[in-house]
Amino acid sequence: MRLNLDKIDLRILECLQAEGRISNQDLAARIALSPSACLRRVKLLEDAGVISGYQCVLDPVKLGLEVEAVVHVSMRHEVPNWHETFVSALQDWPEVVSARIVTGGANYMLVVRTRDVSHYSDFIVNRLYRAPGVRDIQSNIVLGSIKQQTSVLDVLSVKNGS
Amino acid sequence: MRLNLDKIDLRILECLQAEGRISNQDLAARIALSPSACLRRVKLLEDAGVISGYQCVLDPVKLGLEVEAVVHVSMRHEVPNWHETFVSALQDWPEVVSARIVTGGANYMLVVRTRDVSHYSDFIVNRLYRAPGVRDIQSNIVLGSIKQQTSVLDVLSVKNGS
DNA sequence: GCTGAAAGTCGGCACCT
DNA sequence: AGGTGCCGACTTTCAGC
Fold it and tell me: N or C: at which end does chain B have fewer Cβ atoms within 10 angstroms?
């Protein structure tokens, strides 16, 4: 179910990416449309699932979560149900912000958030390494952020005639 | 500037993470507070930078961005200004969703989003590998997503007496 | 598919507890 | 700190174009 998005839709999405709580009236004014027409388009985008939700963006450091790390995990494939077991373990660990299955040497790539280094160490040593089926871990602490694209829309305009 | 967040603040943040466009009235009702007291707390959280903004969540696949990849990049450190040059190159590539400086073998970890595999290949071969100072690339395509934590708050409740 | 008007609802503020 | 009440602004629906 991929919809045909015109330029007005893309401008709506751009605005809502930058200002998720903008009023429908302001949004309509910014894209030069009447409030009701604008609202109808937004609802269509929501119903189509293009917009899957809205959320506030939180500052992890201000919340006391100062350590971010990227962890690649390799599994011992002789352990039965290694995948299912690990997936369900991940759900119980709030430190794991995101988990992906990846190609290459490792099976999984995790992004982990902790309060400090000792919290991170505790997570790696006492929980991740002790999880059933885990063979090896490659742990990379994030020293700094260079780029964090707020919108995923920019790439659409490259070599794209829509 | 780290503020003391009480349980009411955390419940406000939880609600706004899940429903970024909830009305202040509904939010106040959900956390059992009057609308004005609730709004005052939200404004304080915004002013303190705990809430850094609001945005809609888009579905990359519905937008035609089907390929996600994790790329580790190592640099040739003998090239002058290798860091500054690479950082500014990254800003011009919309395919790069996020870029981090990491410890370990590689210098950078990138998350890349492209329309399809040929678009990804074009990015890696024609742009990333040709960037000045790039020595080696470890490219891992994402096969699936196991976990994507919408809220960063869960980890606060672990071993945390606030 | 967009516009415009009408009715219900909300956000923001002053003021009080 | 939290609650109440008010007014201007907003959202949302339903006509008509």
Answer: N
